[in-house]
Amino acid sequence: MPEPLRLALALAAAGVPPLPLRHGKTPFGNCPACKNSGCGDRPNMKAAGPCRCPAPCHGWAAATTDPHVLTSPTWAPAWRHAVAVAYHPGGAGVTVVDLDDAAALAWARETLPATRIVPTTRGEHWIYRGTMRSSNAVRPGVDIKSTMAYARWLGPGTGTMTALPAVVCALVVKEPSMIRPAPPAITVRAQADGGECRHRTFAYLERGIAMAEQRITEARSAVHTTVYRTFLAVLSAHGRCGCLTDAHVARLFAAAQAKGESPRHCTDAWTNARTRLGL
Q1: pLDDT tens for residues 25-35?
Q2: Distances from the Cα of 74 to the Cα of 37, 65, 66, 136, 228, angstroms
């Protein structure tokens, strides 16, 4: 049995869907049946799953935990010529933050919560529990690999894997110009005792944003409606005193996008909520 196949079977048994890589760290070529992405790996499709073709193709879509597929005769040539093994992070329920250089590593160590780390040739993979939309070059030297993506398997890594943080989800927000704080349409009112508006206190505002993120994350159905109502609730509480910042709104957008909402849907929901409240 080829060593790459032996590793792939071990990964599959652990719930990690593998696929073979050829020279250049690229998947094996597409089969004729998959012309025009017929097997369903198109970037605009939300559903991720194993390729239905008889041979490895289309990168992440070929990844599978089915040992019968991995050891089938049609896959045998790929494993004989494979030089490495990759896996589908989203299929394993994880997200890989791929850090490619020293500057990216320095940023991660200063910004991201500690998690499991796998050394790479040029940097490190930081692996978080949870999935999100994949995107390349979210920052200089930083790629996100989760759903609809593959990452090279370089070992289990070290450290305890932690939950996917909002700061990572926020990296895939591609339209920052659409994320604007609610304007201070009404002057901030002082409390009767002369103190500052309580919305500006860190604990009160942070608790409100965290609860909104949780509400979106825990939605099991009607996600778009939940996102809109959550945005409406946040703006009702904080939209008139000018305490919301770009960072707060980006956290809400990131939580919504992690549930499958597009940046356009997030922007529309935010705009509609502001319009309803007259902001």
Answers
A1: 888 765 665 65
A2: 20, 16, 14, 32, 48
